[in-house]
Specification:
two-stranded antiparallel sheet; globular; mainly beta
């Protein structure tokens, strides 16, 4: 988890989680220093309040840079390839 995206358009945000949008999605990448949006994938939370409450960065800043396995459908999110709805997830051990 490397941050979240502004919802009007895909824009990675990794340093301010007080914004309301930080509770609606997360952005995943293999490398925590990734800067190329072609290697990032936004994951939308709109389908499940329990998952949203568990994974959003507004309430769970400790999840930044955590590894996670997400089960979801590959669908556009904010006009880029992304994932929704989430059907399951697993927080993985950090190396």
């Amino acid at each position: 988890i490397i941050g979240y995206s502004a919802t009007a358009q895909f824009k990675l945000i990794s340093d301010n989680f007080s914004d309301h949008e930080a509770s609606h999605n997360i952005v995943l990448a293999e490398n925590i220093l990734e800067s190329d949006d072609k290697f990032m994938i936004p994951i939308d939370f709109t389908n499940d309040e329990q998952i949203k409450d568990s994974l959003n960065l507004k309430d769970n800043t400790h999840l930044l840079y955590r590894k996670i396995k997400i089960h979801c459908f590959f669908r556009p999110v904010y006009n880029v390839p992304g994932g929704r709805p989430i059907t399951d997830y697993e927080l993985l051990a950090n190396e």
